[in-house]
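Researcher: I'm preparing a figure for a lab meeting and need a structural model of a single chain. I don't have an experimental structure, so a prediction will have to do for now. The sequence is pasted below. Please return the structure as tokens so I can convert it later.
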Amino acid sequence: MTAATASQTAGPYWHMIDFPEWADLLRPDGPNAGVQGERITLTGRITDGDGAACADALVEIWQAGPDGRYSPGFHGFGRCASDADGQFRFTTLKPGPVPGPGNATQAPHIALTIFARGLMKHVTTRVYFADEPRNAEDPILALVPAPRRGTLLARPEAPGTWRLDIRLQGADETVFLDI
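Model: Understood. Here is the structure written out token by token.
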């Protein structure tokens, strides 16, 4: 009979699957070369429940194109590892609004998934843009209690640069989606 073994978390093996160029969805030699839209940088910092930096996380994004479509015309997938201070950074185009449940329209957003040591399963959230008027009518954002919605709102840090810090647990924990 085989002895039972402890459960293992994923990682930290990100160096084996991290291709730094994947954090730039607009690189000249990439699949989005020539796609038009509002160029943005998405940055943030990942921290644990004690506020310590998660220096070994892998962050993935998935988004629609500027036209609000998930189509071959825009490759909306990116991946990057967090740095020693828990920071991540993506260069992409601001997504357009996308169809939602029923006949609703979802506000422009970017899906963000985090893989990290200590997580038995990755966590997924959304990045909305704080100045977006469509946020008020987004059917998914409306499911989040009003006092917690701010954990999903990226704020402008400089022209074209948006920041969303991620707290994995504890006070001010980011809202994660059960998908």
